[in-house]
Amino acid sequence: MIMDDKRKLRDFLADLLHHKGDLDAFTDSDLLMTSGRLQSIDTLELVVFLEEKYGIDFAERGFNQNDLDSVDSIMALIGAQ
Amino acid sequence: MRIIPQLDTYPKLVAFAETPAGKLAAVATFAVLLRLARMPFSGIRTPVLEMAAIIGILSFFPQHRRLLVSAATLFWLVFHAEASLKLDLVRWVASSQGFPTGATLTVAAAAALLAVFCALGLYLRVVGQRRHNLLGRRPVLLLVGSYVCLLVATRITPHGLPRVAVWMLLAIVCNYLWFFAYAVADYTSKAPDPYRYQIGTFLPFWVGGRVSPTPIGKGAAFLRRVEARTADDLAVTQLKAIKLLMWLVILNVAQTALYSFVYGELPDRVAGFWKTHHIPFPHLTVPTLDKALHQAATGQSVPVYLAWTILLSHFSLAVLRATIGGNTVVACCRMAGFRILRNTFKPLYSANIAEFWNRYYFYFKELLVDFFFFPVYIRYFKKYRRLRLAAATLAAATFGNMLYHFCRDIHYVFQLGLWQAIAGFRVYAVYSLALGVGIVISQLRGKKVEHASLPFYRRVLACVGVVGFFCLLEVFDYEGRTDTLRTHFAFFWNLFPLVR
Predict the structure, then answer these.
(1) Smallest CA–CA separation between A60 and chain B, in Å?
(2) Which ipTM was obtained for this model?
(3) How far is A7 from chain B, CA to nearest CA, in Å?
(4) Residues 377-406 of B with CB under 8 A from A
């Protein structure tokens, strides 16, 4: 289940990066926002993805952009849900 | 073709930069380039030797970086208190209340800052213990609420010492507001930096002579993610800083040449040389935008070719100034060991308005996104995707933008009174609204297209469209409070003689 979630998440992030012409690989710990590979506008897509797929309510749990910076941190967020 | 060599990718150079001799060479190169990147017409004077000395210490003691950054920031505060404490405003207030404006006032302002830092420390402690209560979740609401309370207090406190004290606090808060907001946001996370490290991010020393309430480098949470962890990482980060400064020196030469050519003014240091040697100096003597605005307001028409020349020159110089100024701060921060992103990054590569806004002044945009955009986006209109995006964008680019500038330019409240300071904001309100609407439309229309993947003619068209929009917007980018909308529209219509 966790592996499946991670795969879906990686696919989603890879898709976001591909749309920006970024075809480089990324590891689970790579900081995608901090490094500038993803921008705030991409965070929106990610927020909607997490709200719709996992029912995460950021208004309820509080929002911190750093929680969405890497695959690892997003998986921790999903796990805490 | 690359103009600047990729210094950070040369293994031998990186290895050399890790040695003591290499560190000294890097700091010396940094100091020379920092001096050369100083803009002649801007009035910003970063003290190069002090900055280089601090960077030198940080380079040799990276294990104590965060503590040294805090110490350096406090050092900078003590020796450059004029701007950090907004002493000019404090002196005006004190003088209007019949108080002396000498050293005692400076000491009092420093004591007020200490009191503010202590109060913030206590507040952060509360936030850290109750992360999910209102105090932690709505940092901007609380900080701006405190700001508004102080603003009201300037009106209702009795004349004399109490009023000076309130203005002193207000002057400090308006400079530090957004730095504090990042600290509060960090304390809502699970592992925030201790307060002694947070202090290093409040108007950090790397802003140099350029005191601005925009936190370039954001807050402690961001800095610890981009901090160099190893000697190799530090060497690469510092070489990136040097590379960036080299680029800024080139831009500085371009900016100076363009300024001189357009306005017919040479920098002081070369003007004498030019005159002595009778070297021809071709130039245009175009009026500044400010002069042209007032000329148009008095009913004198500005020819369309001249109006566009004025606007394009003004815009080009504004972009160059923002690039050099903001990225100089980025270079200093990188030299300190934090690999932060550039403040301005290839703005002319933007495929649409929203992208330009992201590339032009990154850390200001981030501030608006962090404290206005996301709080609205995660709370309101969740079922209506487009409305959700539009509301959040307007909250950031229009409301947040106006609030930021109103808070920053608090001296207008003292000079003109509160209501006149608010009413005088009308021109900037038009600017902010047009910017917000432009970004909303751009985002709603926007397909994610990488600029480089577009055919050449589409790239040129995108660039012309984006630059055209921001050029026109520049007519209303007026942060003063005395101009009327008529003044700005009078010039605006000169750009479109067929419509007029």
Answers:
(1) 9
(2) 0.91
(3) 23
(4) 377-379, 382, 385, 389
User: What are the residues whose beta carbons fall under 8 Å from the beta carbon of B379, sequence distance 6 or more?
Assistant: A59
Q: List B residues 287-326 in contact with A (Cβ-Cβ < 8 A).
A: none
DSSP assigned state of B311: H
* Beta bridge partner(s), residue B338: B227
**Contacts made by residues A13-21, CB under 8 angstroms, sequence distance 24+:** A13/A38, A13/A46, A13/A71, A16/A42, A16/A45, A16/A46, A19/B448, A19/B450, A20/B448, A20/B450, A21/B450, A21/B452, A21/B453
The two tokens of residue B411 are 């001296």
Sorted by where each starts, the structural domains of chain A and their CATH numbers stand as 2-80 (1.10.1200.10)
Q: Which residues of A touch B (CB under 8 A)?
A: 19-21, 31, 34-36, 39-41, 43-44, 47-48, 51, 58-59, 62-66, 69
Tokens of B480: 């003063």
Q: What is the pTM of this model?
A: 0.93
Whole-angstrom CA distances from B92 to B54, B95, B98 are 33, 5, 10
User: B440 to chain A: nearest residue by CA?
Assistant: A41
Give the number of C-alpha atoms closer than 13 A to the C-alpha of residue B125, restricted to the C-beta side. Answer: 7
Any idea which residue has 């307007």 for tokens? B394
Please list the pLDDT of chain B residue by residue as tens digits (500 residues): 688 999 999 999 999 999 999 999 999 999 999 999 988 776 677 889 999 999 999 999 999 999 999 999 999 988 888 888 889 999 999 999 998 888 899 999 999 999 999 999 999 988 888 776 777 677 778 888 989 999 999 989 999 999 999 999 999 999 999 999 999 988 888 888 999 999 999 999 999 867 788 999 999 999 999 999 999 999 999 999 999 999 999 999 999 999 999 998 888 777 788 778 878 788 888 999 999 999 988 888 889 999 999 999 999 999 999 999 999 999 999 999 999 999 999 999 888 999 999 999 999 999 999 999 999 999 999 999 999 999 999 999 999 999 999 999 999 999 999 999 999 999 999 999 999 999 999 998 866 556 667 788 888 898 999 999 999 999 999 988 889 999 999 999 999 987 66
Of A34, A36, A64, the CB nearest to B188: A64
Give the integer Cα–Cα distance in Å for A50 and A58.
9
Interface test with A, best of B378, B383, B440 (most A CBs within 10 A): B378
Interface of B with A in 419-438 (CB under 8 A): none
